[in-house]
Design goal:
Structural class: alpha/beta
Shape: globular
Number of domains: 1
Number of strands: 7
InterPro entries: P-loop_NTPase (IPR027417), Ras-like_GTPase_Reg (IPR052661), Small_GTP-bd (IPR005225), Small_GTPase (IPR001806)
Keywords: Nucleotide-binding
GO molecular function, one term: GTPase activity
Helix content: 25-40%
Bound molecules: guanosine-5'-triphosphate, magnesium ion
Number of helices: 5
Protein name: Small monomeric GTPase
Radius of gyration: 16 Å
CATH topology: Rossmann fold
Strand content: 15-25%
CATH class: Alpha Beta
Largest sheet: 7 strands, mixed
């Protein structure tokens, strides 16, 4: 049986969400900024330790807030499927403090919304610092952000550059690692991360 892991990619506008997904799925990058207006789904497959997983990656256009109820999610087509995602990638631009504030807010809202639900508050969340190639203009030391995210928030942390294809594969591997370690959603806890992306749909991990 092939299991599906749905991953919602959320972040402020222009931080590089679409670029990260397209680099991962198509090994593609565009300097031209085309804001994402409608939610888009990408469905690459991944092989982990001999098991195949289908990823359902939701490229979520900028939203004012995490949908706080099923009704709200239903009313706003941009965030359909966001509430019940199996994992989250929260992207900020390492040069833009406001985009980190946005991630902070969304993370808190995810935690608040999922508290007490059967799918639990320990849903895997990976915080991603994007545009690593613009490192000289960063607003904070990597270490201070990483400590906050890992130690205080208990989330994963990766910095990447979609432009130069640095750590893009790693960030998906990291997230899958967390998801697999936590038993995905309805899953066998024993499966470990290892292996490769399915070559005909993605690049090798
Ligand atoms: N230097 C640099 N530019 C990047 C990188 N990733 C994305 N960009 C640029 O940043 C701009 C925005 O990228 P997108 O991927 O469209 O950002 P987004 O978060 O999907 O934006 P919205 O859909 O509007 O929310 C584009 O001009 C990209 O070329 C990167 O790693 N380095
Ligand atoms: Mg986009």
């Amino acid at each position: 049986m092939v299991e599906t892991l749905s991953i919602a990619v959320i972040g402020a506008s222009g931080v590089g969400k679409t670029s990260i997904i397209r680099r991962f799925v198509y090994d593609d990058f565009s300097e031209t900024y085309n804001p994402t207006r409608a939610r888009r789904v990408y469905r690459p497959s991944v092989v982990l330790n001999g098991h195949m997983y289908e990823l359902k990656i939701l490229d979520v256009p900028p939203i004012a807030a995490f949908p706080s109820s099923p009704a709200q999610e239903w009313l706003d087509a941009r965030c359909r499927g966001v509430r019940n995602a199996s994992a989250y990638i929260l992207v900020y631009d390492i040069c833009c403090i406001e985009s980190f504030e946005y991630v902070k807010m969304i993370r808190q809202q995810i935690v608040d919304n999922r508290e007490g639900s059967s799918s639990s508050s320990d849903v895997p969340i990976l915080v991603v610092g994007s545009k690593r190639d613009l490192q000289r203009q960063r607003f904070a030391q990597r270490r201070s952000v990483s400590v906050l995210v890992k130690k205080t928030w208990k989330c994963g942390y990766v910095e990447c550059s979609a432009k130069f294809n640095w750590h893009v594969l790693l960030l998906f591997k990291e997230l899958l690692g967390i998801a697999v370690a936590r038993g995905l959603r309805h899953n066998h806890a024993s499966i470990r991360l290892q292996g490769a992306l399915h070559r005909n749909r993605c690049s090798v991990m």
